[in-house]
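Sample A.
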Amino acid sequence: MSNYMRRIEARLASLSQASELTMATKEWEFCGHVRDLGGADGNCELCEKSGVRYHFKISNAQTQHSLQVGSKCIERFELRVIDRNGKEVPASKKTSHLEGQKRGARVERILLILAELGMKVQSLKNLAQHYRKHSGFSPNQMVLAEWQLTKLDVSYALKDFTILLKRKDYQKQLKNMELWKLRKIWPALSGPQETIVRGWRKDGAWI
């Protein structure tokens, strides 16, 4: 066993009933509590890796201890993952389940940001509720949100937002949007959306 693995074994064993790594990992599970830090600023409390954006809370029911870890450690050490129905997620679906948890955490962070904005601007108090209901913004709504968030110095990452483009009126908004506005919200477009917009616009909106 490498020194790296010995450190991890010692760390986990100190918080578990079992003293051997393989047995100790069987005591731990992830039950759905994940936090989006908004940037790769966190550390994994198990392997001590830096540059972690999402903190997954793993718990040991036998010792009542918990750790904030990255998703890679959950998979690497084959920790149990429990879904919201109390059932264990099979190994073949563990990665996709954890990715879904990350997406959910990003949405929750966005809703908190929009709620903060709504507290500062009364006319935007329902913005978070609208985003949750529709799972995104129209292009014009994204322009408004970006303007107000920047104006009021609310911390956010535009790339974490979702712009909706399935409706024809939303598509028309982007087709006819002033170039400076489109450039402002460009980071919020997904890769496929960028390709679509490049086909609509020949004015270098993505530059």
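Sample B, a different protein:
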Amino acid sequence: MKTSCPNRSDRWKQIRAREHSRREHAFIIAGIAAALFILSFACQGAEIASWYGESHRGHIMANGQPFDPDNLTAASWFYPLGTKVVVTHDDRSVVVEITDRGPAHRLVEAGRKIDLTRAAFAKLADPDEGLVDVTIRRE
């Protein structure tokens, strides 16, 4: 007479549960990736840009590097770090790399999508303007 392990069915249930959990995680990760991809296209179009400068010099950015307002970089919540985007205002354009997160959440709610360094903003408009309408697209 064969005796079976009393926990054998429990083990199979645990294995199946783990496999099911892994599949769920794979679907969740795929869903997040798809949402980010769609968001990147949804972010294209007319946006509001601002600039930030000297008061932040030397502060560590989200990418771990110190901030330099003389570099052609930008802060945005809507693009992955390291992404290069083309920012256009009227007939002027500048290519910047996303190196930080911003603008502040309250400003995003007010319509701002990107904070440029002073150097990048100066290539588009007079920094005294403070805010400009821009078009943003991935390079």
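Observation for Sample B: Residues 8-42 form the longest helix (35 residues).
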